[in-house]
Amino acid sequence: MSVHHDIEAIRKECHDLLGRFPTLQEAYMDYYHATYAPGALEAKTKHLLALCGALVSGCHGCIVGQAERAVEKGATPQEILETCLVAISLGGTMAWTQTARVMHYLKDEGLLD
Question: 74-107: string of b/e by CB count within 10 Å (b at 16+)?
C-alpha cells in the first residue's frame, strides 16, 4: 500500500467523523487555516515544525500530510530531511522509525532517489 493510499484512507475517516459535527468541523478548519497562515513564521516553516511534532508523536496521518503541505509551500527535500533529523534528536528511535513514512513519500513523489 502506498503512503498516498494510506493517508487518503485516514483523511477520509477523519473527515467523516468531523462531518458528523458541522459546527465543530467549521471551528476546527477555521483554526487549522489560521494556524498555518503566514505570520511571523512563513507557512512552509509552520508545516516543517508540524512535521517534526508529528514524527515525535508518531501521528501517522500527520506525518505524510505535513510533509505534503511543506512541499506544497516550497520546502525542499533537504529541508524535509533536516526536519527529520531534528525530530530524531528529540524523539530518538521512536521518531527515527517514523521517518520511513517521509522517505516513502519523498520517493513516491520522485523527490528522492
Answer: ebeeebbeebbebbbeebeeebeebbebbebbbe
Tell me which residue of 109, 111, 84 sits closest to 98, measured CA to CA. Answer: 84
58, pLDDT greater than 70: yes
DSSP 36-105: HS-SSS-HHHHHHHHHHHHHHHT-HHHHHHHHHHHHHTT--HHHHHHHHHHHHHHHHHHHHHHHHHHHHH
- What is the reported pTM? 0.90
Provide the pLDDT confidence category of residue 1 given band limits of 50, 70 and 90: low
Q: Assign domain 3-108 one CATH number from 3.40.50.970, 3.40.50.720, 3.40.50.2030, 1.20.1290.10.
A: 1.20.1290.10
Cα–Cα distance, 109 to 106 (Å, whole number): 5
Q: What is the largest CA-CA distance in the chain?
A: 44
